Amino acid sequence: MATYKDAGVNIEEGYAAVKLMKDYASKTFNSGVLNNLGSFAGMYELPKMKNPVLVSGTDGVGTKLKVAFDMVKYDTVGIDCVAMCVNDILCHGATPLFFLDYIACGKLNAENAADLVKGVSEGCLQSGCALIGGETAEMPGFYKAGEYDVAGFCVGIVEKEKIVDGSSIKSGDVLIGIESSGIHSNGYSLVRKLITNLDEEFNGDKIGNVLLTPTKIYVKTVLSLIDKFDIKGMAHITGGGFYENIPRMFKNDYVAVINKGSFNIPDIFKHLMSLGVEEDHMYNTFNMGIGFVLCVNANDSKEVIKQIEKMGSKAYEIGHVEAGGKGVCLR
């Protein structure tokens, strides 16, 4: 008699994975969560607001996952998955409410899958959202054994009158950059082409571990700033680097003038340049040490930076806004 297990799908291992995952997910539950994992859908009660707008985002971890597989380290990339989603919806002033994940593999290992969800749980805790559900798909013959794909989806909320959409940005406004934690989750196809030995020493550690540094989550820091200052626009520096992401905050035709010497470039980016990547291409691929950018009034700049640093992150005044065609000018 043919069975599902004969076809490569181990239902018992799936049950074991779900049991482990529930422990991590339950740590993220807050007052909005109405049911436990295991139902057919997650339910979340919206907070009372005058004119609420739901803001959603979805993303994955990309080929950074390949580094995790090669290093046999599964518990950090889940943070990246959450970060890529919540940092995006944050750009419009949204508070993350809940998150769902999707994990696919060729052969399920309960402990590895649980480590992935452990990271997702940690990302949710850092951003204040609840992990209310997900899907684990075992797909033999589609993925190699030991390899997984991880993606996620988050929903946040913002009062309609408080949506940050760039409409009030004007010439002379200042751009503030908040430090990144490293490469984050973009550009890894190029990184893996340049760095083939993940065990090589780099700044006192294996370079593979440095590459797995999780994406910084900016939610709690930025939401506290929105309550105190007029934050006119925001950009999450992801794929496309400075050139593609900073102009996304502009509703009208403006140029972001960036002073290259105004912030610290982490050593890992300098190392990539030493391996043959031209500087202009670096700024069009990576965050270069700035993971999130705010646009504020010039007279608020110093106080905003001061508040960011009080909350434990380094921030810099990296440039300003000028009238003109949409784009970025690096000086």
TrEMBL record:
Residues 51-158 form the PurM-like N-terminal domain. Residues 170-327 form the PurM-like C-terminal domain. The keyword tRNA processing does not apply. It is an enzyme of class 6 (ligase). Its main location: cytoplasm. Pfam families: AIRS, AIRS_C. Keywords: ATP-binding, Cytoplasm, Ligase, Nucleotide-binding, Purine biosynthesis. Pathway: Purine metabolism; IMP biosynthesis via de novo pathway; 5-amino-1-(5-phospho-D-ribosyl)imidazole from N(2)-formyl-N(1)-(5-phospho-D-ribosyl)glycinamide: step 2/2. Its EC number is 6.3.3.1. It catalyses: 2-formamido-N(1)-(5-O-phospho-beta-D-ribosyl)acetamidine + ATP = 5-amino-1-(5-phospho-beta-D-ribosyl)imidazole + ADP + phosphate + H(+). The keyword Nucleotide-binding applies. GO terms for molecular function: phosphoribosylformylglycinamidine cyclo-ligase activity. It is found in: Cytoplasm. InterPro entries: PurM-like_C_dom (IPR010918), PurM-like_C_sf (IPR036676), PurM-like_N (IPR016188), PurM-like_N_sf (IPR036921), PurM_cligase (IPR004733). Belongs to the AIR synthase family. This is Phosphoribosylformylglycinamidine cyclo-ligase.
